[in-house]
């Protein structure tokens, strides 16, 4: 029986990964059980597993601007140590990365092999983590980039918009950042399909298909949960200046899935409908 290790198991994706692997031989370790930046602890944790799925990360994008060393320890050194341990113990490694490895100046979907050029500290730390994994475990690792994720477990944009609906008549949301809202339920299921199959090692884009702005996403959320979408008003990024710059165009290409014998993940609007039906988002 395949033995799976999930790191960052208490996070938003980590919890959906546990659900997607229910009934299997799984060790699920949250941050309190395993610090992925601790080499000895990582080696001990990886031992005895066939598949390691790394969903641990430093995800505070704005804080990373002033704590880049902390972000690097989790997002770059962590995957490096996991890759070294996975190779030592003969395990497959899948690490989750981000659209923020790209600069966002594109106008057509970024292919899996497009050059990375992050514009913030979080993106730099994640790009470094990807590079370590590819270098150390070129034949036995997957890098799965995701973006704009939301789910039942944990703070995320969709949950914030629904919380705001309870106390505000209207919300203003930017139209000038475009990406692919992605349900962690779909992503977790896709990650399990990938590690269970025999797809070639390499980089895959784990985002729901299609594209939309944060404004489009928020209107779609409101519609799905039965709120009036006209309560969502358009604005642009000049109204929301934050410490870390965000890529304006975060659309990832999905051609790589054919190498794995898999279709791209479904359209984000269809996934959002399923997420609401599943109770992952509630008004
Ligand atoms: N959220 C997004 O929209 C988004 C977009 C693109 C890519 N991603 C990537 O998707 C993956 C999953 O993200 P998520 O939204 O599920 O993140 P999350 O909810 O923040 O989960 C990450 C988990 O990692 C834990 N962690 C932090 N430092 C750790 C360490 N040194 N050792 C072990 N665990 C540690 C965190 O614990 P604490 O909470 O205690 O710190 C948290 O439970 C990450 O790789 C992230 O970079 C996310």
UniProtKB/TrEMBL annotation:
Q: What region holds the RmlD-like substrate binding domain?
A: 3-278
Q: What is the primary gene name for this protein?
A: rmlD
EC annotation from Swiss-Prot or TrEMBL: 1.1.1.133
**What is the role of the protein in this entry?**
Catalyzes the reduction of dTDP-6-deoxy-L-lyxo-4-hexulose to yield dTDP-L-rhamnose.
Q: What name has this protein been given in UniProt?
A: dTDP-4-dehydrorhamnose reductase
Does the UniProt entry include the keyword NADP?
yes
Please give the family membership noted in the entry. Answer: Belongs to the dTDP-4-dehydrorhamnose reductase family.
Q: What are the UniProt keywords, alphabetically?
A: NADP, Oxidoreductase
- Per the UniProt record, one Pfam family is RmlD_sub_bind
Q: Which GO terms describe its biological process?
A: dTDP-rhamnose biosynthetic process
Gene3D superfamilies xref list: NAD(P)-binding Rossmann-like Domain (3.40.50.720), UDP-galactose 4-epimerase, domain 1 (3.90.25.10)
């Amino acid at each position: 029986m395949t033995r799976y290790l999930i790191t960052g198991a208490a996070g938003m994706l980590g919890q959906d990964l546990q659900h997607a692997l229910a009934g299997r031989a799984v060790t699920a370790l949250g941050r309190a059980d395993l610090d992925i930046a601790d080499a000895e602890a990582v080696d001990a944790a990886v031992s005895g597993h066939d598949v390691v799925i790394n969903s641990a990360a430093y995800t505070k994008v704005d804080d990373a601007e002033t704590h880049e060393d902390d972000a690097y320890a989790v997002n770059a050194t962590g995957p490096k140590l996991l890759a070294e341990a996975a190779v030592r113990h003969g395990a497959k490694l899948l690490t989750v990365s981000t659209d923020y490895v790209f600069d966002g100046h594109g106008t057509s979907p970024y292919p899996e092999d497009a050059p990375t050029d992050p514009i913030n500290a979080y993106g730099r730390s994640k790009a470094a983590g990807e590079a370590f994994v590819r270098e150390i475990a070129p034949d036995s690792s997957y890098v799965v980039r995701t973006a704009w994720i939301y789910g039942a477990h944990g703070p995320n944009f969709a949950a914030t918009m629904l919380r705001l609906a309870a106390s505000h008549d209207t919300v203003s949301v930017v139209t000038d950042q475009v990406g692919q809202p992605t349900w962690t339920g779909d992503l977790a299921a896709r990650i399990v399909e990938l590690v269970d199959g025999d797809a070639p090692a390499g980089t895959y884009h784990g985002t729901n298909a299609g594209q939309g702005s944060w404004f489009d996403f928020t209107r779609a959320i409101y519609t799905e949960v039965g709120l009036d979408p006209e309560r969502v008003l358009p604005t642009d990024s000049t109204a929301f200046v934050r410490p870390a710059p965000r890529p304006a165009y975060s659309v990832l290409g999905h051609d790589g899935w054919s190498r794995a014998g898999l279709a791209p993940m479904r359209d984000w609007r269809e996934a959002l409908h399923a997420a609401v039906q599943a109770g992952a988002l509630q008004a």
